[in-house]
Predict the 3D structure of the following.
Amino acid sequence: MTLETNKLKLDRNIDEAYFFNGGKIIDKESTISSINGKYLIDKNKYEFERNVKVLNDSRIIESKKMHYYIESEKSYFFDETIITGDDYKINCDAGFYDPIELIGIFNKNAIIESNERIVHGDSIYFDEEKKYASISNNIKIIDNKEKLVLTGDYGELFEEKDSAIITKNPLAINILKRDWDNIDENEWDQVIQTNINGLFYCCKAVIPLMKEKRDGLIINVSSWSGNHVSLLSGVSYTSSKHALNAMTETINMKYCNLGIRATALCPGEVATAILDKRPKKLSSEQKNKMLQPDDLGQTIVFLCQMPKHVCINELTISPTWHRRYIADLGIEKL
């Protein structure tokens, strides 16, 4: 490894070397440059600040502040950072990257962009070789190919399988191509995977524990569309929610003798951010008349507080100003 700079200060008392007017480190794999830098001799570590840039054959790293460990080749980021690979781009304000294992953890405004999707989260673990990512908190996955948005608090992305799943607090999914004339197989598969497979895996995981305790409550958030067939909701969404209601009731049929209860909660329109993704935009006045997230929260608390001997198999909740009914009365168009 070679360090090139116009001016280098060496402090032998603490075994540290500094440069302030630009420096460049060159080894067989990479070239690292920055305005300011420090070499900690005992720790075999570099600390770079201002216009940090790492160049190699596989990726480019640009950061405002980065620490680099020579032996492990790991880079740690402490400010705005962009990593650009052959088929992806990563943004974050903190994190680390291991170029040997090809893994990284990216925090604070973390974003991974590829040709087909954009992934947002408070924290993203990324395995470049496996094309896998796990995302935690404030998740938003924008799929440009399938024209959908997934949100939640924990999710996993499998690039090679071209799939993503939200397993904690999935908020919604929106498909712009909804009906038989323009829906395709990938869009159908994506909705079924999210609305059925995701909840099936969750139920499958907890039922054995509930059987042991002979007690348990499962609340699957379904939809008004789970009871009412409508072309407006789309073929795949309506079908998936009907299937979810049926799946939920089979839990009651199978395990009612073991104290396990399952509820399909079927809300009408709820004023969440996903409404902004609809082709036809809604006004603030319209959103204010809908169910609010807190309404659903209070309903779930109510279900949880019911005694063990009570099973609410299905609960439908809708806004008083029900837009489908209002449309039927000729007062307002959907």
